[in-house]
Amino acid sequence: MSEDFAVKMTTMNYDKDRPAAENPVKIEDLSLRDGHQSLFATRGRTEDMIPVAEMMDDVGFWAMEVWGGATFDTMHRFLNEDPWERIRTLKRYIKKTPFSMLLRAQNLVGYRNYADDVARPFVDRAAANGMDIFRTFDALNDYRNFETVVPVIKENGMHFQGCICYTMTEPRMGGEVYNIDYYVNKAKDLEAMGADSICIKDMAGLIAPYDAYAIVKALKESVKPPIHLHSHFTSGMSPMSHLKAIEAGVDIIDTVMSPYAYRTSHAAIEPLVMTLIGTNRDTGFDIKHLAGINEIFEKEIMPKYRYLLDDSKMSIIDINVLLHQTPGGMLSNLVNQLREMDALDRIDEVYAELPKVRKDLGQIPLVTPTSQIVGIQTVNNVLFDEGGERYKMITAQVKDLCYGLYGKTAVPINKEVQKKALKGYERGEEPITCRPAEVLEPELDKAKEDTKGLAVDLDDVLIYALYPVTGKKFLNWKYGKEQPPDEVKPRTLEDAKAELEFLKKAKAGKLVEKSAKAAPGKSENVRTFNVFVDDEYFEVGVDSLGGAPVVNYVQPMPGTAPPAYAPPAAAPATPPPAAAKPAAPAAEPPAAAKPVAAVEGTPVTAPMPGMIISYAKNVGDAIEEGDTVLILEAMKMENALPAPASGTIKAINFASGDSVAKGDVLAVIG
Ligand code: CO
Fold this sequence. Notes:
Bound molecules: cobalt (II) ion
Oligomer: single chain
Number of domains: 3
Low-confidence stretches: 512-519, 545-597
Strand order of the largest sheet: 1-2-3-4-5-6-7-8
């Protein structure tokens, strides 16, 4: 055992004789960000955080992670909540414990690099609204992407925590790229940039206990800032890794409250508190106080979110992580995507193609957004490559990566793939070697212009600057210019209970009960929920009559269940936009999707479900075969759909922001 870790073998009374530890392990709680992001697709609402906020403030956490990552996206897109308001609201209840956010460096809280003139005010506003600790990472570990945000964090007097994304190419740490020297050198880079603490960010739960020991030991010997370990449970190794890291002298560990623990989330705090009692690393936390918080979570909050929990498997461990050394959430996203395309039988080809694509793309770490970039391209290769031609449908994001827009890859990108990706690329065919944001045009003035008369302050403008399509939709809801749809409204505990009752009946095969009597008429209070039972799903209308909600109608939906929840995620995997209203696109067979029979010509069909970003052409425009007709976003990746024939655009059947199903006719060329 390391000399840094000592167990006092004493008998003691828990309440009275518990000695204060010489070097207590500090704990960051992630329940209100990574916890619900990992288990409940980031759907936690602010109103469901308030009942425990003050009690959590009293625990003695080093910090609470409450924002960043996917929260910004999910809140405005799916919850009709202003992301900025959450920080201010929670700050009124949590006054002692510092707030931490996950900042994707130049990607901020989005999925691409934003221009410097957006990045700077974003960090300023996050600090002004109440953020204290900026956990900053770059998916490629290219710290040039830190150069804009870090000085702003420092100018605001806030804590800059630099992350090293943990990844590997072998079953254990080592090999030519991601070995111990790699991590030590990255930590030294972060120290030189002024990091106040350094975090090993193991988003996929890949770090093995003895590797955690080796890294923490090496980092403690090489750099001065405190060392922090963030290791997801996914593979089942993290509680062991935590203990070995503690023995090696790690300063801070990330955990969640037990209702938010395990699966793709993190280990729970409670077992760790008991494990360390009587050692020189005792957290000092009161286990009874923690139990009190959990009771509120279990009784008042969790019932509303249970429907989002992926309980399709008995095992809470994703063994794929151990088999494929790939983030669990990434693999489940791939499975969902294949299912949507009716190609689930090709999963083995995807497993075989994935390491090849990753190697072609410079052996990049697999974390948001690179896990999606590699994942979607892999699926595209498996589904669309033909006749010996590789990379037939290259996503816009892979093109950007090949151009250097995400930063420098750990090893060079395959030259042939790079050349193909950059053929006709709008920014140029020669890749850049400078800091990516240097080639980005300023964006803020245009965002201000676009939101004139709608945005009230800079916070509003930034929502739009980060998410133009859904951000604008949200601002219209926020200022009463459009009615928000039912699915973004909060669920009450009563809604949840009625639905759970229904689920129980469905599972017991008692659904026939419903058809025995005629359904009453729907009132205007009826609200629609999608309820998933194994592979089937039902649209359920719940109506509030005289206070008590009753199930008003049940409609089985055809086909397999779309992923209303993305089982999620080491990487912040919010469901694809198309899943926001799964009932609509899936309910219609693709053939009947749009009335296009009147227009003669060659149809441009959706090869996958997704959301229309924009059309490159208008009706009447001439187009050459292979030119881009429109951009379709699927699984957060933008796909430029090429014209299947030359001619004139005869019809455009959707608009920006529309969700489309696979097979929908998006345009017609005649
Ligand atoms: Co995480």
